[in-house]
Amino acid sequence: MAFAKLAKRAAAGVVLIPIVLLVTYRGGLSFACFVALLAALGAWEFQRMVRARGIDVPGLVVMPGSALVVLAFYVGGIGSAAIVLTAVLLAVMVERLARAGVGGFVTDVSVAVTAVFYTGWLLGFFVLLRQFPGAAVAPGPAGPPDLGRSLVLLVLILAWSSDSGAYFVGSAVGRRKLMARVSPSKTVEGALGAAAASVAAALISKWTYAGFLGTGQAVSAGVLVAAACVVGDLVESMLKRSTGVKDSSGLIPGHGGLLDRFDSLLFAGPVFYVFARVALSGALR
Question: Which alpha helices (DSSP H) does the chain contain, by range?
C-alpha cells in the first residue's frame, strides 16, 4: 500500500513539475493564467471543506473571484488586486443577502472572503515575483537573463527543499511535537530540518544561478521561506482539522488536493516577495 501511494505521488510529480517549470519559464499572461487556475481550484477545495461544517460558500462568486484577484495582480499589481478583492467582497454580500438565512449571513460572508484571500490574494504574489522589476547587477554564471523567473524558481526550490527536510528529518528523529493540537505529526526536529534544507538549497542556488544574492541574503531567504512553509502547513492542517476532512480534495493522486500540495507556498510566496523587495532594492538598476 505504501509503495502504491509513493508511486502515485511520483507519477503526479512527473506530470506537475514540468508544467510548473514551463509556465514559470514562459512568464507573462501564461504564468498568470496558470496561477489563476490554481487559485480557482484552491477556492473550490476551500468551499468543499467548509461545506462539511454546514457553511455555504457561494462557489459561483468565490472561484472566479479568486482567479480575478490573481489576474488583477498581473494587470495592475497590488492596487488592482485590492480593488478586485473589494468587488468580490461586495458581490459575496449581495449574493448572500439574496440567498442566505439570517443566522448564516455573517459566517458565510466571512468564510467566503477568507477563501478568496487564502487562495487568490496569497497566490497572486507569485505573479508579482514573476514580474519583478529590474535586472540583477551581479548575475550568476548563467545570468540570470530574467530576474523574475529566477526568483520564482528560487522560492519553489526553497519551499520544496523545506518540505523535504521537514519530512525526512521529522520521520527519522522527530520527537518533540511542534503544535500537537493542530498536527500531531509535525515536530520541532522536522521544523529545524526544514530550515537546514532550505538554507542549504539557498546557498547552492547562490553558488550556481542566483549570484544576485549575497551569502547573508541566501541564509536569510532560506530561514524565512522555511518558517513560512512550516506556518503555511500548520494553517492548512488547522483548516482540515476544523472542518473534519482528511484531504482538501482528491485532485492530485497520492497527494490529496492542491491545497494539500501547495499549502506551504501560499505563505512562502508573499514572505519571499517582501524579502526580495527589501533585500534586492540596492541590487537593481
Answer: 2-26, 28-51, 59-99, 105-116, 122-130, 147-173, 188-208, 215-243, 258-279
Q: Hunting for cell 484552491 — which residue is that?
A: 42
pLDDT number for residue 135: 46
- Please, are residues 125 and 271 in contact by the beta-carbon 8 Å criterion? no
Task: Count the neighbouring beta carbons within 10 Å of the beta carbon of residue 45.
Answer: 24
Report the phi/psi class of residue 252: left, alpha or beta, with left for phi > 0 and alpha for psi in -120 to 50.
beta
Q: Determine phi and psi for 97, rounding to 5 degrees.
A: -60, -35
**Count, residues in the chain:** 285
CA distance 41 to 142: 35
> What pLDDT is attached to residue 96?
86
Under 8 Å between Cβ of 104 and 255: no
Distance CA 209, CA 213 (A): 10
CA nearest to 191, candidates 219, 229, 158, 218: 229
Q: Which three cell numbers stand for residue 247?
A: 484531504
- Please tell me which residue, 5 or 178, carries the higher pLDDT value: 178
In terms of phi and psi (left: phi > 0; alpha: psi -120 to 50; beta: otherwise), the region of 28 is left
Judge contact between 12 and 253, C-beta under 8 A.
Answer: yes
Name 55's Cβ contacts closer than 8 Å, sequence gap at least 6. Answer: 104, 107, 108, 111
pTM above 0.85, yes or no: yes
Q: Tell whether the model's pLDDT for residue 173 goes beyond 90.
A: no
Quote the CA–CA distance of 100 and 201 in Å, as a whole number.
Answer: 49
Which set of grid coordinates corresponds to residue 21? 517549470
Q: Cα–Cα distance between 239 and 218 in angstroms, integer?
A: 31
* Model confidence band, residue 101 (pLDDT cutoffs 50, 70, 90): confident
Contact between 69 and 43 under an 8 Å Cβ cutoff? The reply is no
Q: How far is residue 157's CA from residue 209's CA, in Å, rounded to a whole number?
A: 12
